[in-house]
Design goal:
41% of the residues lie in helices and 18% in strands. It is an alpha/beta fold. Helix 5 (159-170) packs parallel to helix 7 and helix 8 (229-242) runs parallel beside helix 9 (258-280). The longest helix is centred in the C-terminal third of the chain and has 23 residues, at 258-280. The chain is globular.
Amino acid sequence: MKPPSAPLPAAAGIGLRAPHVGEVEAERPRVAWLEVHSENYYADGGPALAALDRLRRDYPLSLHGVGMSLGSTDPLDRAHLAKLKRLVARTEPALVSEHLCWSGVGGRHLNDLLPLPYTEEALALVCARVAEVQDALGRELAVENVSSYLAFADATIPEWEFVAAVARRTGCRLLVDVNNIYVNSINHGFDADAYLAAIPAAAVAEIHLAGFTARGALLIDTHGAPVAPAVWALYRRALERFGARPTLIEWDTDIPPLATLLAEAATAQAMLEEARDAIAA
Ligand SMILES: [Fe+2]
């Protein structure tokens, strides 16, 4: 499968959200790249798409999808895929990603990124669908590990082996969400470092960082808080394992001023530079 012609820089980016578009356009902050939710730009025109076209001239772009439902037993949504393909042709992103989850069945769309049962059957199904998307787009897809609050009793494969197997079987890349690994390690009681150790480093195309909210014994992946100290620590260990990788700060609820987001990105950037220096030394 063809890799993108110009990969994302191994530096820190931010998720571009509607309240910040005007400020980013006016001030062009020194951030290495931008990520947007693909579905927000499926329209054929309009001011949002026009702004994205202008920003795309100055920033490498990552298109991050939330609606493909890669793990569903329903047929792939061809209309959705066609819209993604059009947006890819228009914006020439450095990376296209989706979630390793399902969000609908029987024609009903559930507005959530639901975990898969980690079984051989689900693995075969999701790999076939990742391959189908990659064939349709004519390029690699990166798939992201999701947060979860329950596990299926029938699961036979640890989550980290499932994620690694999808990359090995399909040749897809991985978007490793370090916050999701941390959240799941607490919610399900596994060793986050064993998870990192199972991930094939060469497949890692991007890393996500975000904030969670604690509710009782559960950590909820709200994307509405600063990155937690334990997640920064796990990120440092991820960089030791994978090397410097494009890293995104995601913030989707209680969106802070742009300066707060940029400060989080600057922290990630400093850690990326430390990781690069450590490898060079
Ligand atoms: Fe993420």
